[in-house]
Amino acid sequence: MTQLSFFFEPDKQQPKILTQGVFSHDGIGEDKERITLEENYKHLLEETDEFNRQLVSFQANKTETLHSWIKYREGFSASLVDLLIKKYKFEPDDIIVDPFAGSCTTLLVAKMRGINAVGIELLPHCHLAWEAKSRAFDYSVKELQKLEKIIHNALPPNTTKTFKHLTITKTAFPPQIEKDLMQYSEWFQNLEISTNTKILCQLILTSILEEISYTRKDGQYLRWDGRAKKIQVYNQNRLAKGKKAIKGINKGDLPDVKNAFLTKLEKIITDIIELQKEQLSPSHQQLIKGNTLFELATMKKDHFAGVITSPPYANRYDYTRTYALELAFLDIGDEIFNLRQEQLSCTVENKSKLNDLEEFYKKIGQLDRFNSISEVIQNNKVLSEINTALVKRMELNEINNKGVLPMINQYFSELTFVFAELQRICKSGAYIAFVNDNVRYAGEIIPVDLLSTNLAEQVGFRPVKVFVLPQRKGNSSQQMSKYGRVALRKSITIWQKA
Ligand SMILES: C[S@@+](CC[C@H](N)C(=O)[O-])C[C@H]1O[C@@H](n2cnc3c(N)ncnc32)[C@H](O)[C@@H]1O
Which of 42, 295, 327, 357 pairs as cysteine with 290 (C-beta 3.0–4.6 A)? Predict the structure, then answer.
């Protein structure tokens, strides 16, 4: 998944080194616990061409039938899910779970294979993606082709409806494009077409927002075209203060709403025709809207046959910012602040959820469970070593944002709750697959794959494998100039419930 965009390509001449060896640049932080962790688990590390970067990123989905309908840069590929389903022998009667469902790759592949599945996800555009894609077998192709003709030949009526911008999305569209967008949106809502087709229209409009805007998604941020009013006003202020103007990107000619919509619709109709030739075995999938930390805690025990998932990486990327345009279009308003907080802590703004979780566990009569999971977190030596090392880096002014410290601690604390609940709700023998990236902050390497495996083992899983991708992850230029180049693992960790 492209949650971070720098990569080291494999060097065929070099022997494959899977371990990190040293974890703290210049020995500033203590790293003996991380070294011991690696020693203990190095037999699990396996680099294999079976899994590669393309497979683990959304890249392979870009051209795939169905999965390409809406781009989700943080998604993994359908082929990866397929491979894991085959490798761990998930069968039609099984129910698999994806606690961080995103664009629902796991659920959709399960549907294609006739396997039952449950996903949990917070973001509304991911739910829209599920609503539209899971109906692929139910659309009336005739109706869609008729709609295509109507859009070709007619223009939408005027509307008074306006785009409900968030502060961070203001001026994202040229005024005419924004007006057209709202006209098409209103028109589709009022046209006499089936609910299925209306949902699909809403998905298509959502999926073209980036393309028709002055923005481009770029990891942690939205990058802006220099023509956007926001950038121009910003530059006027800078110039007034004697500062240099920033350039912004140049996206060239932007497509209009009609053309972007029709191009997408045409591709989707072709996909639907292909898909509807297939005979699917009946199965059931469900996407739950909610916070996985709370949802998992109330699920039935010993129920699921396995997990295929990828949580947000510990890389400070804020999904509610990257997808601000999509969320604004779906009228998210101030709810965006709650959504941001509810996300697994992976940004410097996330506040601790532990008090709320404790209250919740109390309410459901499971305070003991809360306490025993908390104990695992508090007693984990590797996590406490990382916390101490980061505090030291902070005291040396090497971390520019003090939110990084709580973020890392919360990230692993919350993940431990996820691991513990998955352990409880999975059946004996269930396989768990987690895709994640290792990270480095201020010269301190955080072995996310092995620390997760360690926490998972402490809540009762048996570590099985850590598949390491041939491509390593690179570092930000900032990290590289200060702490040198260190290749970090991108991994798929596999555990099993005994
Ligand atoms: C790496 S993405 C998953 C992508 C997915 N595998 C796919 O192929 O599209 C992680 C997802 O977890 C969701 N997420 C983060 N924190 C969550 C939480 N506390 N509860 C539910 N979903 C959450 C994010 O919104 C994001 O969509």
Answer: 295
- At residue 6 the predicted structure's pLDDT band, cuts being 50, 70 and 90, is very low
Task: Produce one character per residue of 85-100: b if its CB has 16 or more CB atoms within 10 Å, e if not.
Answer: beebebeeebbbbbbb
Substitution site in 344, 410, 435, 437 for ligand 1 pocket (most atoms within 8 Å of beta carbon): 344
Q: What pLDDT digit, counting tens, does each position of 101-136 carry?
A: 999 999 999 999 999 999 999 999 999 999 999 999
Supply the residue whose CA is at minimum distance from atom 3 of ligand 1: 102
According to DSSP, the β-strands at 490-497 and 426-437 are: antiparallel
Pocket flag, ligand 1, residue 326 (CB < 6 Å): no
**b/e code 119-142 from CB counts within 10 Å (16+ = b):** bbbbbbbbbbbbbbbbbbeebeee
Bridge partners, residue 216, by sequence: 223
Distance CA 411, CA 407 (A): 6
pLDDT for residue 12 is more than 80: no
Q: Domains of the chain, with CATH numbers?
A: 7-125+284-497 (3.40.50.150), 141-275 (no CATH)
Number of H helices, E strands in the chain: 20, 14
123 CB near ligand 1 (under 6 Å): yes
- The pLDDT confidence band at residue 209, using thresholds 50, 70 and 90, is very high
CA distance 433 to 87: 11
